[in-house]
């Protein structure tokens, strides 16, 4: 009886090993791994390109747009100061130019 339980366990291990071996060498599994690897590569490249584009856009914004915003704010403050001074001196208020 002990030998029959051994042979059944060894035969079940043989079946599991064969099934596992067959599945691991399956062309479908190989193709799936290849597709997953390709997808990971494309995703990595896409993220790198997106990061480069974000860096380019951010630095361009800082160099070109932020100084423009600061200058426009200064100009608006100067216009408001001129209007305030004109009203203190008693000049009629001028319509704000746009």
Automatic annotation (TrEMBL):
Q: Which InterPro entries match?
A: Tom22 (IPR005683), Tom22_pln (IPR017411)
Q: Where are the transmembrane segments?
A: 53-70
Please give, as recorded in its UniProt entry, the membrane topology of this protein. Single-pass membrane protein
Q: Is Transport a UniProt keyword of this protein?
A: yes
Similarity-based family: Belongs to the Tom22 family.
Q: Tell me which PANTHER family the record gives.
A: MITOCHONDRIAL IMPORT RECEPTOR SUBUNIT TOM9-2
Q: What is the name attached to this protein's record?
A: Uncharacterized protein
User: Species name for this entry?
Assistant: Stephania japonica
Q: What is the lineage of its organism?
A: Eukaryota, Viridiplantae, Streptophyta, Embryophyta, Tracheophyta
């Amino acid at each position: 009886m002990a030998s029959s339980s051994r042979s059944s366990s060894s035969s079940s291990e043989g079946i599991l090993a064969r099934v596992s071996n067959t599945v691991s060498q399956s062309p479908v599994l190989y193709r799936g791994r290849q597709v997953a690897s390709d997808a990971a590569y494309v995703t990595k490249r896409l993220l790198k390109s997106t990061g480069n584009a974000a860096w380019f856009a951010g630095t361009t914004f800082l160099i070109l747009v932020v100084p423009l915003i600061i200058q426009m704010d200064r100009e608006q403050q100067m216009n408001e100061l001129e209007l305030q001074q004109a009203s203190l001196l008693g000049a009629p208020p001028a319509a704000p130019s746009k």
